[in-house]
């Protein structure tokens, strides 16, 4: 956990725009479950700014300030739990050129006295009711945890120390803290206002002028707050048993699934005297970016390594297609373990040991396919077919991502099915957010913006984890996305379904530029199973193919995937009028060219949400959910554009003025450690023997949450 990560200079910029304290307060409420006190707020406003000013005065304004940070990677942070470090300063050591860290306790005390004459451990601070520990004792506990094997740098070579800063005090007023019998150690330094020059000197000794962003990035990556893109992590892991490193609640879920599998699945090597015939269903719920797919792919790899038969099913062609074509290219056995919900009308023979159902909110009433004969369609609930396919079933579900009227996957649906199958259901809820750069604030802001929750939308407050900006034109949005993609980042443009969608035309399979905004025209991603003119990729791999940059994706081809930068075009299906959202269905008109249609009345052109399919209330809900999905596809930056000027002005009002300094995570601004280009798909044959590491090679230490 952390509340804020910014350089000292950027923190002062944020504060000058009155954004720092409100942002910290919102993050505090999310993690702690209660409002930050006025005392806490005033401490942030005073002490953080004082420390940041001193860093700038020392010529170390580049040093990263990580505010209210947990000392270890897997530390539980609960209401009332005090184990958060006020500030972790991160930079590069000027002599050793390794990460340099200072743990800081900020105190606004102006005077203190001892509680007992014989010890300096307990202190009395005027104006407080409870006795206080000497700050060096707090720092000592943080230091031990931070530098342990569980700490953020996990045993790597780095410099670490700590100090308490009492910027309102003088040496005489807090003599108790600095007497000869006070605690000692590399973390026990005390600075007062009298010792400010010494503080500035020590900051220069501990931190170099450059390199802080790189070292902070290393720390965020090791803490799991910078996620490796799903497909890249899968490619790196081909050849290793372990796909991802899970922590906290995620690890708890995976461990419980594996433990249960060992109990309820028969082991041919050690037959049980009394077979355990229990059916078990795991139901894991959580929002976008909480690591559901990471858990699923991890347990798939581990169960397969134990000799279990496992399939990974999804309702998303884009997600499965990207895994099959990009990660499993050339490895037929690997590809065939990824399938779809509709593939279990007839139970497999023999039954699977485990079936993992990702994006279970996309379950259908029945399994159908327009290419099947009607007699081959499913006759009962699709969820029953999935439960009948294996002894152990794992569902990952987010009811907030239903975007089609025939998406029926809910918690209640699975609970009812479990009762019909006499199965024990085990439920878990994931809360920690690891998509969108780990920015819970951004995910909550998007939900409030779209009125998905009851929270009132407010101004976006930059947090150093996620960036948002609003483009004035579609040309500007495309320029930003193309610039980042060509520089090395992964990037795509997506849009609401607000234009007709033409199938590839003619023998050359030409893509029509359906998305038309003024003079700016671009095609949707190809509605095709094969490549089209100019090597435009089929829709199932549009998200990962290098030639997908020139086409516009929609919610159905973007759901479940992510990029560093995502440009989101809001169309006329959801516009702002008189302080509320207004939703519109569009009408199309034919053109002289066969098969091509244009917009007659702007609005939604999604054939799945036509007036005859869903009522107005359901239509509004599905449009909100679609934009929620589109706006949470980026891991570093989202660029918004609305075709409607009033809506665009509203977005600009909430997002605020574009920050052109270090808060904008362009490829050029990123530290080297953060520049991880999207990986090419592996060549044919690479998947053979994928559980054995090749001689002399080692998979890099990547973590996905």
From TrEMBL:
<feature type="domain" description="AAA+ ATPase">
    <location>
        <begin position="278"/>
        <end position="432"/>
    </location>
</feature>
<feature type="compositionally biased region" description="Basic residues">
    <location>
        <begin position="677"/>
        <end position="693"/>
    </location>
</feature>
<feature type="region of interest" description="Disordered">
    <location>
        <begin position="671"/>
        <end position="705"/>
    </location>
</feature>
<dbReference type="InterPro" id="IPR027417">
    <property type="entry name" value="P-loop_NTPase"/>
</dbReference>
<dbReference type="InterPro" id="IPR018647">
    <property type="entry name" value="SLFN_3-like_DNA/RNA_helicase"/>
</dbReference>
<dbReference type="InterPro" id="IPR003593">
    <property type="entry name" value="AAA+_ATPase"/>
</dbReference>
<protein>
    <submittedName>
        <fullName>AAA family ATPase</fullName>
    </submittedName>
</protein>
<dbReference type="Pfam" id="PF09848">
    <property type="entry name" value="SLFN-g3_helicase"/>
</dbReference>
